[in-house]
Write a structure and sequence with these properties.
289 residues, alpha/beta, five-stranded mixed beta sheet, three-stranded mixed beta sheet, 42% helix
Length: 289
């Protein structure tokens, strides 16, 4: 009897030893925050970027992801970035907060896709500011590691600045203020009867105004009041002007301050949002290289 109890206890402990590592692996497994599918970074560089992205994301409770792609599978850079973030399970909390930086060699474009709380941090204007840093940081010269580092440093700067007090979200290409409903379009059609009636009324009104105006200008001939041929004379004299002195005045015309490159001067607090193929809401912006 005692031996049987000991056997049961040993079996339970053995089962726990088998199951606990699996459970721990599911709970504690860290997300891969750098997916270098195009092979642009060395192993050491990938580890460096991964750690920086993980530390920055942990500070603001966001998933910050860097992805390189050689083949976008027929998708645009924005579609690829949104789908990769959604379907790879990135995002923190119920809003799936985070952002993804994509270097797309297929479309020759870099793209930033924020989600959840990150949409409020990275407005359209700030995304353009990050892209400016990315291009200045090495992308123009083909330095992809420098571009990725610049993305992290510029993002850290805007996250540290906090959410802009005037931040607001606007659906992309939407007429309705509700981003989750399509605007109702009412067709504007003019029937043949309405067109004919309008033409007749307009024609009669035009004829009436024409004859009324013509009658108003009609009058009796008046005698000539001034005999200009008899009473006019011309006296032409030669005049000359002498230059006495000159003065030169100069001043500096200040250059206009740049209004920002966010979509052609959009409002500083604006975040343009759209739905991805998964149905989730994203912001975003990109630039060709």
């Amino acid at each position: 009897m005692v031996r049987r109890k000991c056997f049961k206890i040993a079996a339970i402990l053995y089962a726990c030893l088998l199951l606990c590592p699996v459970a721990d692996g599911v709970v504690l497994a860290e997300k891969n925050l750098v997916a270098d599918q195009a092979g642009l970074f060395t192993a050491a560089q990938t580890t460096e970027l991964e750690q920086e992205a993980r530390d920055l994301g942990a500070e603001y409770n966001l998933d910050i992801v860097i992805v390189t792609a050689e083949d976008a599978g027929g998708k645009s850079a924005g579609e690829y970035a949104d789908d990769y973030f959604d379907y790879q399970g990135y995002g923190v909390g119920e809003e799936r907060s985070g952002l993804l930086f994509l270097i797309d060699l297929d479309n020759r474009e870099v793209y930033i896709s924020p989600s959840g709380e990150a949409i409020r941090y990275l407005t359209d204007e700030r995304i353009e500011g990050v892209l400016d840093e990315v291009f200045a940081g090495g992308l123009t010269d083909g330095d992809m590691l420098g571009a990725a580092r610049s993305f992290l440093s510029a993002t850290e700067k805007y996250l540290a600045a906090g959410i802009p007090p005037d931040q607001y979200s606007v659906p992309e290409n939407a007429v309705s203020p509700n981003p989750y409903s399509a605007p109702t379009v009412v067709p504007n059609v003019l029937s043949a009867e309405e067109g004919l009636g309008g033409g007749v009324v307009a024609g009669l009104a035009g004829l009436f105004y024409f004859f009324l105006t013509k009658r108003g200008y009609k009058g009796k001939p008046q005698p000539v009041v001034f005999e200009f041929r008899k009473n006019c004379f011309v006296d032409l004299n030669v005049n000359s002007d002498n230059l006495v002195n000159t003065y030169v005045t100069s001043r500096i015309i200040p250059k206009p301050k740049p209004s920002g490159s966010a979509g052609g001067g959009s409002a500083p607090g604006r975040s343009t949002i759209h739905r991805s193929s998964s149905g989730r809401i994203h912001g975003g912006g990109g630039r060709k290289f």
